[in-house]
Amino acid sequence: MSEVKLSGIANVMLGTTDLARSVAFYHETLGLDIRFESPGFAFLDGGGVTLVLSEAHARLADPVAGGTEIVFGVEDVTAAHAALAERGVAFLSEPRNVTGDQWAANFRDPDGHLLSVFGPRGVGA
What we know:
Structural class: alpha/beta
Largest sheet: 4 strands, mixed
Strand order of the largest sheet: 1-4-3-2
Oligomer: single chain
CATH superfamily of the largest domain: 2,3-Dihydroxybiphenyl 1,2-Dioxygenase, domain 1
Radius of gyration: 16 Å
């Protein structure tokens, strides 16, 4: 049997029912830079991983397949929570301690994908 070594995660693909709406959310609201777009797809800079928004993947989605969450690392969860809330992000909960000195706050994108900010609580908290 030949050996295969995976080199890391290159892309995370999310299905979207409205590409323009999702691009606006991830680019304008969350601040991710757009790498490039092609018909039905948008590729955003996820800081070492490319986040791909795909209309085709929305048609392939199996809602029973299991839970998925994209976690955005931040330096200050309290500050990120406040800044994103000011931009209209509706959080599912206030920032909470999840492990040791790490905190998280969850929210959803326009298609319902679970997202969160994760990192230290912050110096001002």
